[in-house]
Write a structure and sequence with these properties.
The complex is a heterodimer. Chain A is an alpha/beta fold. Helices cover 46% and strands 13% of the residues of chain A. Chain A has 10 helices and 8 strands. By secondary structure, chain B is of the alpha/beta class. The chains are: A alpha/beta, B alpha/beta. At the A-B interface, helix 2, strand 3 and strand 4 of A face helix 1, strand 2 and helix 2 of B. Bound molecules: guanosine-5'-triphosphate (GTP) and magnesium ion (MG).
């Protein structure tokens, strides 16, 4: 099909339009997505996550520059939150990456969460496929600024960078599971600020208490210096890239890469099942007004939600 | 039927570094339910057009306070057309003297809003005139 051929040939407009169609859930996009599938699964995917304002975009921009020096082609998906009130969104991550706008080997796409709660957009999995089919060597995914729970990024990335900053209330002892557990590499950003040393010390102490099970990967910690000192910033980003490369090597040597690829495949089929089974049912119920009627019944305590759902399931799942 | 969301890029070509107006506009667009890609100050027309295509926006809103609109706005339209993206609409705002309007419209700028224009009128213009592609 034309679309697929163009995307595999690297056509930017066709790719960005298909990503839009995926976001907007245009039914016709599905046939393109299906045909793209054989061309996917080839890129190395790096997640960049951390609290709002931690410096994720700044680091992503640094990574683009560093990886371009190594002649890698790059796709970036940068996610920002949708306003629950208006449904609109300000997608501002791109500001920090605009110096690469004219580099044809770099494709940057902003995505709004559109109600997705895991720190990503529902479209992210398939947008990754589009970038892979374009032949991007490396895909960087910047999540929304997250707390502890929005960790869907582990379902998509091979390596996850967690960006921490001093003095933002995310000191190590207050950090619970979640964010800390998904880190393959830690970056302490704004190391020019007071408290960076302290954060580093605490993080090291925390990592020291981890019981190294067999084949344990100890997440390295990179201090990202002051972005206002270009040379030192670049040096630290180069170090970060090196740590990611080491992590990749570890994934290969330990067999964990297969595990991650497996996890990703499980999520992909899970999402596709939801899209194929749950969404059409929900749409039918919504359009017929039945959903509203059922909501009313539950509200008035005339029926319990489980019985209603079972009745729907019996009707649709034959 | 799924409903498309309108995607708008707000960009500041040229050298002036005052982006307060552009930021206010971006927030206003968000509150109107649009997805707004904001690219910051000091953008060249080439950067703006590359970003607009990668982001698949329906509309580019250019804001310029430095007086360079006469050259920069038409250049954006021209580059979009060159890149086979002439269907992306361009509107302009900022300090633009009335005698420049005709030339800008001729160059393909779809609407011009000067600082006096209420923000709601821009949103209304978009809702009336910008139809996301089918
Ligand atoms: N002092 C200092 N400021 C920095 C550093 N890195 C980033 N910043 C600033 O921190 C602010 C946020 O940076 P971003 O890169 O946009 O942060 P982000 O995590 O992408 O933010 P969101 O996407 O909004 O969650 C910007 O104003 C940067 O200039 C640093 O090393 N030192
Ligand atoms: Mg960001």
């Amino acid at each position: 099909m034309e679309t697929v051929k163009k995307i595999c040939g690297g056509d930017i407009r066709t790719a960005s339009r298909l990503i839009r169609d995926i976001e907007d859930k245009i039914p016709a996009a599905k046939s393109s997505i299906k045909k793209l599938f054989p061309h996917t699964g080839k890129s190395y995917i790096i997640g960049i996550t951390g609290a709002p304002g931690a410096g994720k975009s700044t680091i992503t921009d640094g990574l683009i520059a560093e990886l371009r020096k190594k002649n890698k082609t790059i796709g970036v998906l940068a996610i920002d939150p949708t306003s629950p009130f208006s449904g609109g969104a300000i997608l501002g991550d791109r500001i920090r990456m605009q110096r690469h706008a004219e580099d044809e080997a770099v494709f940057v796409r902003s995505l709004a969460t559109r109600g997705s709660l895991g720190g990503l957009s529902q479209a992210v999995g398939e947008a990754i496929h589009v970038l892979e089919a374009m032949g991007k060597d490396i895909i960087l995914i910047e999540t929304v600024g997250i707390g502890q729970q929005e960790i869907d990024i582990i379902n998509h990335a091979h390596s996850v960078i967690v960006v921490l900053v001093p003095g933002m209330g995310d000191e190590v002892q207050t950090m619970k599971a979640g964010l800390m557990e998904i880190a393959d590499v830690f970056a302490i950003n704004k190391a020019d600020r007071a408290g960076a040393k302290q954060l580093h010390t605490e993080l090291m102490a925390m990592l020291n208490t981890a019981t190294p099970a067999e084949g344990y990967w100890r997440p390295p910690v990179v201090m990202i210096g002051n972005i206002y000192e270009a040379l030192s910033f670049e040096g630290r980003i180069a170090e970060l890239v090196q740590k990611i490369e080491e992590h990749y090597q570890y994934l290969l040597d330990s067999g964990r890469l297969a595990e991650r690829i497996n996890r990703k495949a499980a999520v992909e089929i899970n999402d596709a099942l939801k899209a194929a089974i749950l969404e059409p049912v929900m749409n039918t119920l919504r359009e017929s007004g039945e959903l509203a009627a059922m909501t009313e019944k539950v509200k008035n305590r005339q029926a319990d939600p489980h019985s209603l759902a079972e009745e729907v399931a019996q009707r649709f799942l034959k | 039927m799924p409903e498309r969301k309108i995607r708008v890029m707000v960009a500041k070509p040229g050298l002036d570094g005052h982006d307060r107006g552009a930021r206010v506009l971006a927030r206003c667009f968000r509150d109107a339910g649009f997805e707004v890609i904001y690219t910051g100050c000091h953008q060249t027309p080439e950067q703006i057009v590359a970003a607009a295509i990668q982001e698949d926006v329906d509309l580019v809103g250019l804001s310029c306070l430095s007086g360079a609109h006469r050259k920069l706005f038409p250049r954006v339209v021209e580059l979009l057309r060159e890149k086979d993206a002439g269907d992306i609409n361009v509107i302009g705002g900022g300090i633009i003297p009335e005698q420049d309007f005709a030339a800008l419209y001729d160059a393909g700028i779809k609407a011009i809003f000067t600082p006096g224009a209420p923000l709601d009128s821009i949103v209304e213009w978009i809702n009336t005139n910008i139809k996301p592609r089918a």
